[in-house]
Design brief:
124 residues; mainly beta; seven-stranded mixed β-sheet; four-stranded antiparallel β-sheet; 11 strands; 50% strand; globular
Length: 124
């Protein structure tokens, strides 16, 4: 599955952004779509994931209550709505797909295809 991430940019602290992930060649049906982020000098970290069939969602504690992951069945796209952004949210955001069981939603190793990443910068 080829993925295209979009929607990053520069925003002030407290602001909002939405990043999106589209599948270029096939549907997300049967897959889980995850968002991860990598800040400079840090390891890639889990942000949120959604199982396409059924809509089960999982969030990292650091974004719970501020970020919302959702899917658009018509456009075959997954969105990550980010509200209340903080400087520590600054990172390159990557979407990925895989077929992990629920307990592995947070594991990068469980995802088999990755998008190119989109930069989100939050200024203080």
């Amino acid at each position: 599955v080829q993925l295209q991430a979009s929607g990053g940019g520069l925003v002030q602290a407290g602001g909002s952004l939405r990043v999106s992930c589209a599948a270029s060649e096939r549907t997300f049906s049967g897959y889980t779509v995850g968002w991860f982020r990598q800040a400079p000098g840090k390891e890639r970290a889990f942000v949120a994931a959604i199982r396409w069939n059924g809509g089960t969602t999982v969030y990292a504690d650091s974004v719970k209550g501020r970020f919302t992951i959702s899917k658009d069945n018509v456009k075959n796209t997954v969105h990550l709505q980010m509200n209340g952004l903080r400087p520590e949210d600054t990172a390159v955001y990557y979407c990925a797909v895989g077929r992990p069981i629920l307990s592995y939603f947070r594991s990068p190793e469980a995802y088999t295809s990755w998008g190119q990443g989109t930069l989100v910068t939050v200024s203080s």
